[in-house]
Design a protein that fits this description.
Elements lengths: L1 E9 L9 E9 L16 E7 L6 E7 L4 E6 L2 H53 L7 H26 L11 H39 L1
Antiparallel strand pairs: 1-2, 2-5, 3-4
The structure holds zinc ion.
The site of zinc ion has 8 residues, from loops.
């Protein structure tokens, strides 16, 4: 069962009359709960032995026990350290598993957004061609095929990246399958982005050159 820390304040110590703050060790029993019940149970109380922080004299006080837990007593320094260390370790593990779970989503969403951007570039590209004066076949051949082909290639790459594949996978080979999928997704998103950026750079240079001429 998991141990937790509970900060408990005694506003008026029966020994010295001052305010003391203690760390109590709680035993969390939620994970061991087997039966689910509706109803409100009366708040349980337990007598805890405290030591006055001023002169170390012992005194007892009734403390309300939080639901699904037991109060073990005042936490020692080593217990506080140990509980905090376990808590930190758990939060690191949680963060790591969140990263693992979301990493594919990040690349997948990127490909999806890039696909939308690439598709949306085509009408903009056609609109820009209209602005070019002194149309000649050479100019059209210089602009339309390369840029359009690059844009279409980028669209194909991003579509392949997010296209779902059906495959029968055994649990033992899942890790390998997952790694392969992630590598493929990474390669396609990089490759698609390079192609898309090349088409943008090429069109910017070309349109600027034609406007100057
Ligand atoms: Zn005291």
């Amino acid at each position: 069962m998991e141990k937790k820390l509970l900060e408990y304040k005694i506003s008026k110590c029966p020994i010295c009359g001052e305010e003391h703050i203690y760390s109590l060790v709680l035993l969390d029993k939620t994970k061991n709960n087997n039966v689910l019940l509706f109803g409100v149970s009366p708040a349980a109380q337990t007598e805890v032995l405290f030591l006055c922080k001023k002169d170390n004299s012992p005194f007892t006080k009734k403390v309300t026990v939080p639901p699904e837990s037991d109060i073990l007593g005042i936490a020692t320094d080593s217990e506080i350290e140990e509980i905090k260390r376990i808590k930190d370790l758990k939060s690191v593990n949680n963060e790591f598993s969140n990263w693992v779970q979301s990493s594919r989503r990040v690349a997948f969403d990127f490909c999806k957004n890039m696909l939308t951007t690439s598709v949306a570039s085509i009408p903009i590209y056609y609109a820009m061609i209209k602005f070019i004066e002194n149309h000649s076949v050479e100019k059209y051949l210089l602009i339309i095929p390369p840029i359009l082909l690059l844009l279409l290639l980028a669209i194909c790459i991003f579509t392949i990246g997010i296209y779902p594949t059906l495959k029968l996978i055994h649990e033992s080979s899942f890790q390998e399958f997952r790694n392969n999928r992630l590598r493929r997704l990474s390669f396609l998103s990089n490759f698609g982005t390079i192609i898309y950026l090349t088409s943008i750079v090429y069109s910017v240079i070309l349109f600027t050159y034609m406007l100057i001429l």
